[in-house]
Design brief:
Number of domains: 5
Number of strands: 20
Shape: globular
Helix content: 40-55%
CATH class of the largest domain: Mainly Alpha
CATH architecture of the largest domain: Orthogonal Bundle
Largest sheet: 6 strands, mixed
Strand content: 15-25%
């Protein structure tokens, strides 16, 4: 039996008696008797009766003084999963809240990282859903994980490492996001010790060795701060504090510092009574030791995203040492240790159930975070995308930004103007066209800095640009852009599928308009698909061939034979598919040959890419000859207003400014340049590869003629 696992109920009863009423303590003891009976005969790998694990979980929650229902749910959190007890039994014996919490925790029981990725991600989605109904679900799950980490030694080494990895990647960051530092720190250190045992042991030994050498300096600084605050009449508790081992390890790894550089920093925490005293303390300490420029952070005026509040400053101390000081009130200290759990007390308030009007700022921020996760979940393509996005969301170093109205928006370091737009509102992100930072116009991809005022310029006709996915950093922006593009792509696939099916139906002297609801319903049933639009999507995405679908429709209506099919397939009066350039994302123009209106073209159906248009003389066309069933006869519409990419290879004389001269000439012809590159051909000539926007072959020919007249241009050809 591990030293961390209790062997009696006495410890738990003693802890809850300190802050709960006797009637509630009695309910907790009854829950213990109920759970012990339910788990009777069950044991853990760590040894001892199984009931002592849920009791240990309940003790962890009692240490942060969670409410009576949470303690009861913790004691019973495994009974539905591991015993014949049902959710209905818990509702009858206790209450609906306890039963719902236990049910929520039960659904999380299979969050295993050695399972297939999809199953793992789906389980994580269940956790977020359970959190959205009651945040106490995740608090119990965190305590459950902490006790499992304390007793991990009985597992196989490979399983220990897997669980440690999961703890560091998911559970510790969630504890940090909810501000529960007391649990986060222990989860991180236990995960670090298990995943990297050698690194942990070396660092632990180094800290122990250095601690004795630092003791005198720490006492000297502590005494100096205490005396100064006493002279100023500020009652305070001054404590020297050590960074925990995982924090030291991360700092050494990511800032590329050696151990001695880390240990040169002395850290202190000053706890006072009021926020006013926090600022007075800051002034007093700055009079004692010189502050380091740019290292003062006010998290009282602008709290962190998890509700954390403190003043932070870095000082030049004695003996050339740096001093880190955190200044906070007793209440702020409680929140910094227990986060959401410091305020999440479910009890009657003046005869009223706690509601959204009397939530603390910490609770409001926690609810906003869970709400944000639900938005990400709704817009994620699948559970794997969701898990990827949440991991991004769990590791923020925060910056603080302002809207023109003065509202504060918190974002992770590295966030761009697009991330800001989506943080304000999804529609603001979707319709963003530009941005002003402190009234100066800047590109949307610009990275933001704390303290800036951001104004997003919008156009209701604007849509998200797929290129934004290359630089956005927040999970919400990434998931919302992907969701919009996927919806747009699906619409394009349906439209393209309809056109392709209509073309194939012409081979049977039929048209898409002639398909009745009865015919569509019959085909949906025969193909065992969700609905008619799903069929059109599959055709548009190239997952299902339109001519085979047309054959099935013909069979349904006419009962035709294979011979009928072969004959009708060879019909010569089939009309080609018309391409207008406005079909959407599922009609793509091949980058190998850059077809433009006026070119002789053909279409090739590609899975996931839809219809890809090539020039007939494209060198890649020969690769498609083995798949004639995927070729399509296509032609351009007469009047097309869109522009298309065309690539030119220009040989120019090696003269200073030749590239700029050609680019300027193209701009004078009101033609956009998509991309350009150059390379030396020899000592006399350079080759320019340039992709420009043109409307048709005539437009391109005109541009080429005018460029050819330039003195610096030796040769020009279309690639």
């Amino acid at each position: 039996m591990s030293d961390n696992t209790p062997t009696s109920i006495d410890g738990l009863i003693q802890k809850v008696s300190l802050y709960l009423e006797k009637e509630q303590v009695d309910k907790i003891f009854y829950a213990f008797e109920f759970g012990a009976q339910a788990h009777k005969g069950q044991t853990r790998k760590a040894g001892g009766a199984y009931i002592w694990h849920p009791v240990a979980v309940a003790e962890i929650l009692a240490d942060i003084q969670l409410d009576c229902e949470s303690i009861i749910a913790a004691i019973l959190h495994d009974v539905v999963e591991d015993t014949p007890i049902t959710k209905e039994d818990l509702q009858a014996e206790f209450c609906d809240s306890v039963a719902e919490i236990v049910d929520g925790v039960t659904k999380l029981g299979k969050l295993e990282f050695d399972s297939p990725q999809e199953a793992q991600a789906s389980s994580f989605q269940k956790m977020i859903m359970a959190m959205s109904r009651d945040i106490r679900v995740i608090l119990i799950k965190l305590a459950d994980r902490l006790h499992n980490m304390r007793t991990l030694g009985v597992m196989r080494p490979d399983k220990q490492r897997r669980i440690a990895k999961e703890t560091l990647e998911i559970y510790a960051p969630i504890a940090a996001r909810l501000g529960i530092n007391a649990i986060r720190i222990e989860l991180e250190d236990l995960g670090f010790k298990t995943k990297f045992p050698t690194r942990y042991a070396v660092l632990e030994q180094a800290v122990k060795k250095a601690r004795g050498n630092r003791h005198e300096i720490v006492n000297q600084i502590n005494d100096a701060i205490t005396i100064r605050l006493k002279e100023e009449g500020i009652p305070a508790q001054v404590l020297g504090r050590e960074k925990h081992l995982y924090s030291l390890y991360k700092k050494m790894k990511f800032k590329r510092l050696n151990f001695n550089e880390i240990l040169d920093i002395f850290a202190f925490r000053v706890v006072v009574n009021t926020a006013d005293e926090c600022y007075r303390t800051l002034g007093s300490i700055h009079a004692l030791y010189k502050p380091f420029p740019g290292r003062i952070k006010d998290y009282i005026a602008i709290p962190k995203s998890n509700g954390y509040q403190s003043l932070h400053t870095v000082l030049f101390g004695p003996f050339g040492a740096y001093i880190e000081v955190q200044i906070r009130t007793n209440q702020m200290h409680e929140v910094s240790e227990h986060g959401i759990a410091a305020h999440w007390v479910y009890k009657k308030l003046d005869g009223q159930e706690k509601n959204s009007t009397n939530l603390s700022p910490v609770e409001v921020r926690a609810q906003e975070w869970v709400k944000n996760l639900l938005e990400i979940q709704q817009s994620a393509g699948n559970s794997l995308d969701f898990l990827e996005n949440v991991k991004i969301d769990l590791f923020p170093d925060t910056i603080y930004l302002f809207t023109p109205a003065g509202d504060i928006i918190t974002l992770p370091v590295g966030a761009t103007a697009v991330d800001f737009a989506y943080a304000v509102h999804t529609n603001v992100g979707h319709t963003a066209t530009g941005c002003r930072i402190d009234k100066k116009l800047i590109p949307l991809r610009s990275k933001l800095q704390s303290g800036q005022t951001i104004e997003i310029m919008r156009s209701e006709e604007k849509q998200p640009n797929p290129a934004w996915l290359q630089f956005v950093t927040t999970a919400k922006a990434r998931s919302q852009i992907r969701a919009f593009l996927k919806h747009q792509q699906n619409d394009s696939a349906i439209n393209l599928g309809q056109k392709l099916l209509n073309k194939s139906l012409h081979n049977y002297n039929m048209s898409y308009k002639s398909l009745t609801d009865v015919i569509q319903a019959g085909l949906v049933t025969e193909l065992k698909i969700e609905n008619w639009n799903s069929l059109l999507e599959e055709i548009g995405y190239g997952k299902r061939l339109a001519n085979l679908v047309a054959k099935k429709i013909h069979d349904l209506m006419m009962g035709s034979t294979q011979n009928d099919y072969q004959t009708s397939r060879l019909a010569k009066d089939s009309e080609p598919l018309i391409i207008s350039g406005t079909e959407g994302m599922l009609v793509n123009y091949a980058g190998c040959c850059h077809p433009i209106p006026g070119d002789y073209i053909f279409g090739f159906i590609s899975a996931e890419k839809g219809l890809v248009i090539h020039r007939h003389q494209c060198h890649n066309v020969k690769n498609f000859k083995n798949s004639p069933d995927k070729w399509l006869d296509v032609r351009w519409e007469q009047d097309i207003t869109q522009t298309f990419n065309a690539e030119l290879l220009i040989e120019v004389k090696n003269k200073r400014g030749a590239l700029a001269t050609v680019a300027t000439k193209i701009a004078e012809m009101k033609t956009d340049i998509d991309r350009v590159s150059s390379e030396d051909k020899d000592e006399f000539y350079s080759l320019m590869h340039i992709v420009i926007k043109v409307s048709n072959r005539k437009h391109l020919a005109d541009i080429m003629r005018r460029l050819k007249r330039m003195p610096t241009v030796e040769k020009i050809q279309r690639v």
